[in-house]
């Protein structure tokens, strides 16, 4: 099953949502802006996530850099 993640990045928390190819929500949770916590949440769908979209805001760089580094 192919999954796609979207992250709505706020100043102190992020809404992480993972959808399947039929747009069914398979994961949804508001998380603190902590890279390890967000990566851990995405790894719960390990190997199935085809792409991640992150809201482009003033503070996006730390999250995108960290996600790219984590693979």
Overview of the molecule:
This protein is α+β, with helices and mostly antiparallel strands and 71 residues long. The chain has one domain: Nucleotidyltransferase, domain 5. It has 2 helices and 4 strands, in the order βββαβα. The chain has helices spanning 35-43, 61-70; strands spanning 3-9, 13-20, 25-32, 49-54. Strands 3-2-1-4 form a 4-stranded mixed beta sheet, covered by helices on one side. A hairpin with a 4-residue loop joins strand 2 and strand 3 (25-32). It is globular, with a radius of gyration of 11 Å. The model has no long low-confidence stretch (mean pLDDT 93).
Task: List the defining traits of the structure above.
single chain; alpha+beta; Nucleotidyltransferase, domain 5; 4-stranded mixed beta sheet; 2 helices; globular
Short description:
This protein is an alpha+beta fold.
Annotated CATH architecture: 2-Layer Sandwich
CATH class category: Alpha Beta
Indicate how many domains the architecture comprises. 1
Largest sheet: 4 strands, mixed
Distance between the termini: 19 Å
Write the layout of secondary structure elements.
Elements: E1 3-9, E2 13-20, E3 25-32, H1 35-43, E4 49-54, H2 61-70
Parallel strand pairs: 1-4
Antiparallel strand pairs: 1-2, 2-3
